Amino acid sequence: MKGFGELIFMVLIVLIAMGVLGVLLTPGKSIASEIDSNYNLKEKNGEFRTYQSSDNITNTARQISELKQPYDMEINPGKKSVLLYRDYAVVLVPSSKKTRIEVLRHEKAYRRHNNVIIGHWGTLRNGSIGNPPVRGGGFGFGK
C-alpha cells in the first residue's frame, strides 16, 4: 500500500508542475490589448489604432514597456520611436508635448514608418517580419 501512496503523490506533483508551467508559458494579453486598456483611443483605422499619451516619448515608452516587455525597441527622444512585439509594432510620434501612439501590424508599420525602421533594423524582405516560415532579414522573430 505504501507504493500506491507514493505513486499518487508523484502523480499529484507532476500535475501541479504541469499546471505551473502552463501558466508561466501562456503568453497573456497582447500589447494591443494592454494599450487599449490603458490609453484613450483617438482613431480606429482598419489597419491600425491611434492613442494619445500626455507624456513625452521617453516616459510613454517606459510605461508601455512596463505593460509588456518589447522584443526590441528604438527610442529617440523627440523623434519617432518604435517598440517591437511579436505581432505588433508600437510607433511613438511626438505631438506638441504629448505622444501619439500607433499600434500596427509589422507590415503596416514598415510601410507607414519605414524611415525609422530601416534606419535601425535595415531593409526587410517580404516574409521576414513576424513569424516567417523561412529565415530572412528582418526583426528576427522565430529565428
**Helix/strand order:** HHEEHEEEEHH
Identify the overall geometry.
elongated
Give Rg in angstroms: 20 Å
Question: Helix proportion of residues, in percent?
Answer: 40-55%
Main sheet properties: 6 strands, antiparallel
Spans where pLDDT lies below 50 across 5 or more residues? 130-136
* Spatial strand order of the main sheet: 1-2-6-5-4-3
The class by helix and strand makeup works out as alpha+beta
Mean pLDDT: 80
Count of DSSP strands: 6
SS strand fraction: 15-25%
Helix segment tally: 5
Walk me through this protein's architecture:
Helix 4 packs across helix 5. It is built from five helices and six strands. The termini are far apart. The longest helix has 24 residues, at 2-25. With 143 residues, it is an alpha+beta fold. The protein has helices at residues 2-25, 31-38, 57-67, 106-112, 114-121, and strands spanning 40-44, 48-53, 72-74, 81-84, 88-95, 98-105. Mean pLDDT is 80; it is low at 130-136. The radius of gyration is 20 Å and the shape is elongated. It has a domain at 29-105. A six-stranded antiparallel beta sheet has the order 1-2-6-5-4-3, with helices on both faces.
SSE order and pairing:
Layout: H1 2-25, H2 31-38, E1 40-44, E2 48-53, H3 57-67, E3 72-74, E4 81-84, E5 88-95, E6 98-105, H4 106-112, H5 114-121
Antiparallel strand pairs: 1-2, 2-6, 3-4, 4-5, 5-6
Helix pairs in contact: 4-5
